[in-house]
Amino acid sequence: MSEHSMVNPHEPVPFGERLANSQAFSELFRNGMALVEETATYLDGPGRAESKQLGRAAALAYATESMRLTTRLMQIASWLLLHRAVKEGEMSLAQANQEKTKVKLSALDNHDPNNVEILPQQLRDLIDRAQKLRMQVRRLDQTIHTVPAEQAPSINPVEHQLGLLKAAFGRESA
To answer: What is the band of 104 on the pLDDT scale with cuts at 50, 70, 90?
Structure first.
């Protein structure tokens, strides 16, 4: 049987699942995981050496902002891995939607711009790239997981009233 013969023309297209399976997601996944790896390599190598040469205020800013960067990237990586599981059929989009509530992709970034200015350039670049990646992931998340109004389950007022009557009288038919 072809895929087209199995599609119900009266059902909405599962856009979220298709987007999670798209080339755009695959590219975002590759870029996100590459940024995680690049950041880890920098922080464990050249970044560690650079941080030892900083003054007290800059070293404190480095420690604070590198921790925020690491946390942000781990949240992004968690989101990407959840949606890769959807792409690979390991979980449904509904399951990923439930699990993603544990992932914090906040819109606000609580870094101190004065701190960032005194950091080494490579760390500033990584912070900037991570912020851009987070915004891309947030947009994709909203697109994948937002149910259009026409697809949202609607409550039929008559069915609701019948349900209340059934519950009140303990009967199966009203």
So the answer is: confident
